[in-house]
Amino acid sequence: MNTDINEYFGQFVSDKRSGNFLSEEGAFVKAVRYGHWVVLDELNWSPSEVLESLIRIFDANQELYIPELNSY
């Protein structure tokens, strides 16, 4: 089973009360933000969009940019 990029990084979800769209962080973003450990088992099986998004966190900049949410 491949994990969808939204599960890693997040997505926009509709607020049931207001109908507005809110950004919802994914599991990877939450772990990085709060300093938790992350185990990326069999990462080589991930879709290319997931791998491309992870590259920045592993390079010297150590930034995580999420284009879908337009945020670092």
TrEMBL record:
GO terms for cellular component: nucleus; preribosome, large subunit precursor. It holds the Pfam family AAA_5. GO terms for molecular function: ATP binding; ATP hydrolysis activity. Gene3D superfamilies: P-loop containing nucleotide triphosphate hydrolases (3.40.50.300). The keyword rRNA-binding does not apply. Residues 18-63 form the ATPase dynein-related AAA domain. The keyword ATP-binding applies. One of its GO terms (biological process) is ribosomal large subunit assembly. Keywords: ATP-binding, Nucleotide-binding. This is ATPase dynein-related AAA domain-containing protein.
